[in-house]
């Protein structure tokens, strides 16, 4: 069952990446299309998606009820960040890849919700949202900033300096605004919700098409398991689940079984589909970010059935 579930969740992702690859090979996209997609997703679609998701799945009462779980999710992300910083320094990962590798260790939010529902049912949604909140805050308040400051061009980085506007990227602003609406119980008109939902729904498909475009430009031979990719995958699929397991074993034995399993599964899902877009925005190594997302997605088919089997 878990093998079929993981394959069913992965196949649409692979097909959409392949679609982006094929259309770019056929010359459907102009040279500026990828950059325009990057801006659209980052500045419009992602904030809309985050705003709608928070108000759709969370209420103030539910937020209070699931808040204790944030201790484990934030704890695991913080420890993963620390481990990633150590790995980056120890292995002298080159500029342009550092921010991506650190984010791969710590953040996911990719195919988490449909996977969780398929494995554990609707009862797991509340616990998934604990992970969603953690990843949204950590990614856009800290992770995206790391990538934005990790230019592969040292000259460009030193000449432009620090961009203070990147402290508040559009997705983080969308999350903060959604919290205001949630906490103050401000009603959102149906037409506004529908509009933002339609716009937000393009995030994943456009991000995957962008990955296909990058793969087309770099060539399929760019998919490889070099040292930095292997380090990122070990962080994603070994370190992150182990850290979560230790936290839950030491302090989370009282948690409901579904919450425990949700946290473990979400600690071992592929990297963010928008990582290549973030790398592009920050003048990072887009090919590396694409390779990491692609390889982590392919390996997910093997990893998740093993993890679910171990969880019983």
Automatic annotation (TrEMBL):
One of its GO terms (cellular component) is plasma membrane. It comes from the Bacteria. Keywords: Cell membrane, Membrane, Transmembrane, Transmembrane helix, Transport. It holds the Pfam family Mem_trans. Its main location: membrane. It is a multi-pass membrane protein. The chain crosses the membrane at residues 6-24, 64-88, 100-119, 125-147, 167-186, 198-218, 230-251, 292-311. It is found in: Cell membrane. InterPro entries: Mem_transp_PIN-like (IPR004776), Na+/solute_symporter_sf (IPR038770). One of its GO terms (biological process) is transmembrane transport. Belongs to the auxin efflux carrier (TC 2.A.69) family. This is AEC family transporter. It comes from Streptococcus alactolyticus.
